[in-house]
Automatic annotation (TrEMBL), chain A:
Subcellular location: Membrane
GO MF annotation terms: ATP binding
Protein name: ABC transporter ATP-binding protein
Nucleotide-binding in keyword set: yes
A Pfam family recorded for this sequence: UPF0014
Domain of life where this protein originates: Bacteria
Phylogenetic lineage: Bacteria, Bacillati, Actinomycetota, Actinomycetes, Bifidobacteriales
Automatic annotation (TrEMBL), chain B:
Record-listed E.C. numbers: 3.6.3.25
GO molecular function, one term: ATP hydrolysis activity
One Pfam family of this chain: ABC_tran
Protein name per the record: SalX-type ABC antimicrobial peptide transport system ATPase
PANTHER family with a match to the protein in the record: ABC TRANSPORT PROTEIN ATP-BINDING COMPONENT-RELATED, ABC TRANSPORTER DOMAIN-CONTAINING PROTEIN
Keywords: Hydrolase
ABC transporter domain residues: 7-233
Glycoprotein found in the keyword field: no
Keyword Hydrolase: yes
């Protein structure tokens, strides 16, 4: 359990003084926005407080789960994270019709199964297999990326199909299947969802030290180990985003068509 | 037995709230077309002519109808193979490809046109030479095959769309105001091309037209207030 002892306490602890300095920095920025009349000072301070509480809560939960060291609790937390991610995806995607929770849930479940199966169990191979300090962060990073990609892709798909109404009808009128008629929108939407992930993959290491690698180095880990971990995570992240993105498109494109393969634009 | 029949043709917009009643655009219309026949459909704007066409091509989710083609019920076709035989040509030209040639060949990439089922040998993918000849027939001799369709006038685009539909060799063509933006000379050419396709392949044509009769239609149907009246031409 070398990993556990390393993550249990950071090399340089952040104490109450450190947290206060952070808030001073936020306060300084808030004053600046007040002077500039940007009107975001209140929401900025509120979000900062919220993020502190949420992160501390997450920290306590993971600490508890690590100490409990029970496969059932770990799997329950993973499941809870997936359910929460479904909710966030649905609220974040603008202009989508109702009733998409099931396809989103299915997509996230399959993606998490693949990622946890491949990254955790085949590549990292922790012992025990359910080691929460591996499984929980990996699941969290994957879900964070997937939620953003899927929400953007779904939102774009339904608005694009609506904008392409005449085109879709012309395709269908010449014998195209719903998939053939929806294909240009499917491709455009899936691509849009992938852009941030691909950009992150290409730029990491040049100017940007990705959060995970930075964290591992700051916590006293070997930078080369950190680099390997970060590469595995980034590559897995891109693959799973492509898989999840494709999956959600395949599961939802038929929502724009009736059982008789007629086009019916759908919006919220 | 008629070549193409339509019975109980209705289009109803259902309201989801209970306060409003359903809006019926038309209901219980019926007519039939014979092989190689040209029939015109007229009626004021908004009377639902396009919805009639969409309904006949099984494209309108608000419509219902009992349709037969060569004695076979539409329910015995897949929606795709029905639309492949009964082709709807919308009023608004849509050409998404980068060149005129690709635009015309687009439907030949659809799975229904790549598989053999339900297609005669005459619907093989046309060659560039055939397309060139047909464009000339339609008075589009100044439109190069490599032209980007967005650089064409609306009237030119409408004729390219017409040619694309004709290349599919449909059994019934539902042509929605193809000649709306055309001068009378070009309009005459469009009429002649449709006439020739009807004579040679037996294709039945239902046209929406706002022009004076060109003498090609054997019957004129007019749609107003949800009713269809017919006038036989000599």
């Amino acid at each position: 359990m070398i990993i556990a002892s390393r993550t249990a306490s950071a090399v340089y602890d952040i104490n109450v003084f450190g947290l206060s300095v952070t808030f001073l920095l936020v306060a300084l920025a808030a004053i600046l926005t007040l002077v500039m009349r940007l009107g975001i000072a209140k929401s900025m301070i509120w979000s900062t407080l919220r993020s502190l509480l949420q992160l501390l809560a997450m920290g306590y939960i993971i600490k508890y789960v690590i100490e409990a060291n029970d496969a059932r609790i770990v799997l329950a937390l993973v499941f809870f994270m997936v359910i929460a991610a479904v909710q966030i995806t649905i609220t974040r995607a603008d202009g989508i019709p109702r009733g998409l929770a099931m396809p989103v849930l299915l997509t996230l479940m399959i993606s998490v199964l693949i990622v946890d199966g491949v990254v955790s169990e085949l590549i990292i191979k922790p012992s025990p297999w359910y080691a929460p300090q591996i499984l929980i962060p990996v699941t969290g990073m994957m879900l964070g990326n997937l939620v953003a990609a899927i929400a953007v892709a779904m939102s774009r798909f339904f608005s694009d199909m609506k904008a392409r109404q005449y085109e879709v009808e012309v395709y269908l009128s010449m014998g195209a299947t719903p998939f053939e008629a929806a294909k240009p929108s499917i491709i455009a939407s899936a691509k849009l969802g992938l852009i941030p992930t691909i950009a992150q993959l290409a730029s990491s290491g040049i100017v940007l030290i990705p959060g995970m690698m930075a964290g591992q180095i700051m916590a006293g880990g070997d930078p080369l180990e950190a680099a390997k971990y970060q590469f595995v995570v980034l590559a897995a992240l891109s693959s799973i985003t492509i898989i999840g993105d494709t999956l959600i498109m395949m599961l939802i494109y038929r929502r724009c068509f009736t059982g008789l393969d007629q086009f019916e634009p759908r919006t919220a | 037995m008629s070549y193409f029949t339509a019975h109980a043709l209705s289009c109803v917009f259902k309201q989801h709230s209970t306060q409003q009643s359903d809006t019926t655009l038309f209901s219980d219309l019926s007519f039939h077309l014979e092989r190689g026949e040209i029939v015109d459909l007229t009626g004021p704007s908004g009377s639902g002519k396009s919805h009639v066409f969409m309904a006949l091509a099984l494209l309108d989710p608000h419509a219902s109808a009992k349709l037969t083609l060569e004695g076979k019920d539409s329910s015995s076709f897949t929606p795709e193979s029905w639309r492949r035989n009964v082709v709807y040509l919308p009023q608004r030209p849509v050409l998404t490809s980068d060149t005129v040639l690709d635009a015309i060949l687009l439907p030949f990439d659809f799975s229904i046109n790549r598989s053999v089922k339900g297609l005669g040998p005459q619907t093989a993918k046309p060659t560039a030479k055939q397309i060139r000849n047909e464009l000339d027939e339609l008075g589009l001799d100044d439109v190069e095959l490599v032209r980007n369709p967005t650089t064409l006038s609306v009237g030119q685009q409408a004729r390219v769309c017409l040619l694309r539909s004709l290349m599919l060799r449909p059994k019934v063509l539902l042509s929605d105001e193809v000649d709306a933006g055309l001068d009378s000379d070009s309009s005459e050419k469009v009429g002649a091309v449709l006439q020739s396709a009807a004579d040679h392949t037996g294709m039945a044509v239902l046209r929406v037209r706002h022009r004076d009769s060109d003498g090609r239609a054997s019957m004129i149907l007019s749609l107003a207030h949800g009713r269809l009246s017919r006038r036989e031409m000599a």
